[in-house]
Amino acid sequence: MAAAGSKSVLFVCLGNICRSPIAEAVFRKLVSDEGVSHQWSIDSAATSHWNVGCSPDSRAVKCLKSHDTETSHKARQITKDDFLSCDYILCMDESNLRELKRKCNKVQNCKAKIELLGSYDPQKRLIIEDPYYGSDEDFETVYQQCVRCCKSFLEKSS
């Protein structure tokens, strides 16, 4: 996934249509604005297979656009190769974390560091709640959490 000398991060949630594509888009914009995109390979994925091939939720896209952030992501499920090639797999809640650790245990030589994205939140909001059954405001909350966490993650991983 990552070229020599670069780092790779995979953002993961349950369906890969709300939280993880927001985090991916936020991080892409952040590294682009910082002039370090060439140092990163960035993607997102789902623990489930439900939405494979789908675009992000329209509310996620609308929220990103309101912050001048674009996404062209299509949902995909995490693969064995992701565990072997990614430096970081950052997920949104305890359920994602349990599922990723379960999958990782079946992969020999798993190199990815698997963590909650919220563990980087300076405001200590550990869980990024799924906004799927919520309102536009819930998507905005996810966006703001992702911005805080991604900034902190970039600082700590640079």
Characterization of this structure:
By secondary structure, this protein is α/β, with parallel strands linked by helices. Helix content is 40%, strand content 14%. It has helices spanning 19-33, 58-66, 80-85, 94-104, 136-157; strands spanning 7-13, 40-46, 88-91, 113-116. A 4-stranded parallel beta sheet has the order 2-1-3-4, sandwiched between helices. Helix 4 links the parallel strand 3 (88-91) and strand 4.
Number of strands: 4
Ends distance = 18 Å
**H/E element sequence:** EHEHHEHEH
Structural class: alpha/beta
Per DSSP, the total helix count is 5
Q: What's the rounded overall pLDDT mean? A: 96
Low-confidence stretches: none
Strand order of the largest sheet: 2-1-3-4
Oligomer: single chain
Helix percentage range:
25-40%
Gyration radius, in Å: 14 Å
The biggest sheet, with number of strands, parallel, antiparallel or mixed sense and barrel status, is: 4 strands, parallel
